[in-house]
Model the fold of this input.
Amino acid sequence: MLTHLKRRTFLRGAGVAIALPMLEAMTPRIRASNQPSKPLKRFVCLSNNYGVYRNAFFPSSDQMGVDVELTETLQPLEKNRRDVTIFSNLDHGATGGHQGVPALLSGIKPSQAAGYPEGNISVDQKIAEFVGAATRFPSLTLQVNETNQISFTRTGVQVPGIKLGAAYRALFIEDDEANKATAVQRMKRSRSILDVVMEEAKSVHRDLGKQDQHKFQEYLNSVRSLEKKIEQQQPWINKPKPKTDLAEPPQGKGTEADLHAMMELIALAIETDSTRAITLSSGFANGDFGLSGSYHGFSHHGQREKEVAALKLIERNQIGQMAYLIDLLRSKTDSLNGGSLLDHTTVMFGCGMATGEHSNKNLPLILAGGGFNHGGHRVYPKNQNTRVPAANLLLSILRNHGLEIDRFGNSTGTLTGLRWS
Done:
C-alpha cells in the first residue's frame, strides 16, 4: 500500500531541512475507472409551509406495502409507486404549529438549537458541508410563491431562498468580467476582515471566563465556517458554467407553470453536477387553479367544502410536480455513477407542520429514488411511548449519502426497515 505524503514534505536533521522532489505519493491516485468507488449521491427536498389535508393524503393505516391504494392527493405517483415510500406516524415530537416548519430537515426548532452539538443544521446543509467545493454550489435553496424556511447552517443562520429566474441565471448564465473581478475583490476584502477578526479574537479569548469562552468559541466557529465557504467559492469564479438548450423560463406564469419549470431546473442542476443538495418550498398565488384566497386561509379549512377542495388541488399539484421530477431523473443517464439520475438521487416530500390546523404530529413524508428499498406505505407505531422519530429518516438519508455518522438531531438510529444500496 502506498503512503501518501504532503507536497511540502522535508527531511530534517542536524538543523537542516531539505525539501523532497515531487513524488508519486504526493499526488492524488487516479482511479482505474472513470466511475467513483462509491456512488455520488444527491438530495432534493420539496416542501410547503402549511402541511396537507390528511384525509386525502395518507393511505389507510391497515394498507401497507407497494400495492397500497393511493389516495386522491397521491394519485400522480401511481406509475412511480415502486420507486416511492410513504411514511405514517413519523414526526419530530415538536409542538407549536408554525414553529415546527423550520424543523423539517433537522428535527430541531431554531429556539432549541443551542441544546444540540450541531445546532439545527438541516440535512441539505450537512450534505453541503460534506460535498464542500466539489460542486459550484454546495447547496441550492429555492422557492416558488413561498419563503423557504427549512435550510439552516450549523450556526443557526437561515439560508435565503432564490426564485426561478435567479436560479436559472445562477446555474447557466456567465457573469461578465467586471462582475467576476468584483466577486474576487469582495472575497479578498472578506478574507482580510476575517484575518483581522481572528487575530483580535486570540487576545480577547484569553481574557474571558469559561462560560464566555464557550460562547466565544461558537462565534469563532461561525467565522471559520465563513472563511471555509470563501475558500470553496473562489476557484469556481473563473470556471465556465455548463451550457443548456433550455431558455430562461418566464416567471409569474402561475404556481403550476413555475413549479414545472423549477423541476426542470432541478433536474438540470443535478445532471450537470452543479450541486448535490437542493431544497424547494412552494406555495400558492391567489387566482391559480381558479381559486380565490390564500394558502394559509385554505389550510384552516374547518372541513368546509370550498377550502378542502382548494387544498386538494394545490397539494395534488405538488405531488404531481414530484412525480414529474422523478420521471425526469429516471429518464436521464447518470454520467458519474452509471444507471439513471434517480438511482442516486433521493427525492423527499415533506412538511414540518403536518396540517394547517397547527398539528406537528404525523408529518406528511414521502421518499423516492436514491437506491432505497422502497416499500410503498410504511406504518410506524402511533403510540407516544413507542414513537419513532422522523429524525431517524433524516439520519438514514445522510448515511445513504455517504456520511459516516451515528446520530443526527434527536435521532435514535437509522429508520427500521429502510435499507439502501
